[in-house]
Write a structure and sequence with these properties.
mainly alpha
Length: about 50
């Protein structure tokens, strides 16, 4: 993964404030969630093709 793209997401202000208070870095959370979902769907697709 050499080239990066930007993806933006809108969240309610309250959620953003809670994330800030809890020290949650949205980029890390979103990156992991997207990677997990891609892996899950890749496995699902492989299973469907078998």
């Amino acid at each position: 993964m050499g080239i990066y793209e930007t993806i933006s997401v809108k969240v309610p202000s309250e959620l953003k404030e809670l994330m800030k208070q809890l020290g949650i870095k949205p980029s890390e959370v979103l990156r992991k969630a997207i990677e997990d979902e891609v892996r899950k769907r890749q496995v699902q697709k492989i299973k469907e093709n078998l």
